Fold each of these.
Amino acid sequence: MSYDGALVFDVGAAVGDTSRLFSKNAKRVYAFEPNQENFNNLTDIIYLNRIGNVEPYNLAVSNQNSDLTFYNRESHGIHSLGKHPKGKIINTSKIKAVKLDDFYQDNFYDNEKIGLLKIDTEGFELEVLQGSENLLKNKTIRCVIFEHSHSLLKTLGKNPNSIFKLLEGFDYEIYDYKGNLFDYRKNNPNKISDFLARAKQVS
């Protein structure tokens, strides 16, 4: 997998560690972070490190364009749009959510490929992909890295296999964190694990 010289979308950028890493090889990184404190840290990192190819957005990414309730917790890594088994809720806030399909349509005009879409949204990874179905259908997104937590998805009342089914339906191959092809019908994911989905055919 290579995103050298390509666009990277970092959804759930938190305090900017991954965005800073991606910026070293990507043409441009679009970093989405809905928590205000995390977002402030993200923009500080961009400024202090003089990173010129990261664009930060204080937005949530989901399957709808609307204002959603966001749950801000004690730990910077587990803020989310819903329930979570860990972390005391400090407060809630309203955050603007966008669909990546619409964000891309509004900001890009030459069918430029997204080399990598990284998603870490504490159990709301499926919604991000549901809002990106046109990009997946057209193979505009070459690769997706996403976190998957079976127990968290159960807490949220979601089918843990839904994200695998969606990606498979758009003809993406899924690999586990060891680089092995993953089939949700036969293989069980670890309690918390990272996966890579790659488009089988890219024009």
Amino acid sequence: MKIYQLGSTFEFPHPGKAPAEGLLAFGGDLDPYRLIVAYSQGIFPWYSDDSPILWWSPDPRMVMKPEEFTTSKSLNQLIRKNIYSVTFDQEFERVMRSCATVVRPDEAGTWISEELIQAFIQLHLMGLAHSVEVWYEGKLVGGLYGLALGKIFFGESMFYHLRDASKFALFHLCRFLHQHEFILIDAQQDTPHLRSLGARTMDRADFLQILEQQKDQNSLIGNWGDGSAKFCTFDFYNPFK
């Protein structure tokens, strides 16, 4: 198995060269434009503090169609009772840091480094990275964040402090994306939790084909919470033009 070392340019080897588990390359940096190039090609960073930056493209890929989100009985009750409220793009950094500090039973530490947080803050200021916040009695109790390119939302991480708060965030994200004609959420890794919410696996080749079709699509750029976001051209395959 060959793992490629990245250089100073933002070029990546073809993701199809990665084995099924997905490790494709190492090195480089987390420059926002490198991240744009990576995600637009189906590649994402995932690494620990004691390793170099590792770049992945697993096969198969976990994805979700916004209209196929599955609500549980408890979540349906929560939605009907209107206990939580939801906002978009109001506390992006707080959501990211909450995702970074939440304790996950099967993981030691976090891949959401300070460097990654700063890079995604820049992507958020560019109108490309977005957050969903869930509130209870004025307190932030759940949320998620990710990157939107074309009509695809690349989901990064979720957190919750109260029951079903992250599912509540995902429910509202799916509703928003469906209303704006997004076709897919990239959930990256296959987990039973994501399957229970309606996600499914897709062959990497099919996923990459969808990404290729997205290069001519406008992106919903701007703040998703204040009505200022607009569909406009962002050449994320050639972001330096």
Amino acid sequence: MKRLFLPLLLFVLGGSCYAQPFRIVAYGDSITYGWVPNPNPPSARYDFDDRWPGALQKALGSNYQVIEEGLDGRTTDALDPGATISGAQLDGSAYLQSCLASHLPVDLVVIMLGTNDLKPVFNRTPLRIAIGAAHLIDLVNTLNGGVGTSYKNPKVLLICPPPLNPSINSGPIFGPMFKGGVEKSRQLPDLYEAVAKMGGAGFLNAGSVISTDGIDGLHLTAESERKLGTAIAEKVKEMLK
């Protein structure tokens, strides 16, 4: 019996060293991508440590793995007629399930979308934007193992984007692009919290943590990106403890 005990103990202790990290997909738009604020696009991308997914990874440590899926211009579930890429284009709902299936196993998906839905080209009310976010939660809840696998559906953390800064209205590009969006963006938090609750998702109001303090009134400074990542880390730990 003693001969079996020591090898078994070593196996258990050694096996714990190889525990798989929690896998988290960060699914969003240009704020998730880390777009450097610029009122006259094009622009560049922040370094990893200055993007909120990078700050999230740093705050969580090696027991977690953050997978970035940020795309400039991505919507919740609206097809953008001005998209310059083919396939799913900028419709977040068209790519979400394929995205998650390609990364399985996934423990949690952090979704922060809705800012681009504010564009007048989509003619969406705040309620319709929140319904788009609810659609994304439902897609995660019905992933059902992806393709040929039997993994559990990931948990969802829905983040309401911070409201647009009124300074966006004076911008030569983003002003017309987001005309009327400032007031709509301020109405989103309560609606997002409601759909998150209905979909069994966690919720964080980014506007309670940071503001759209970039020079273009739409994006974040590096400091705010890092601050947001740290705040998300606390929610993630709470949901995956």
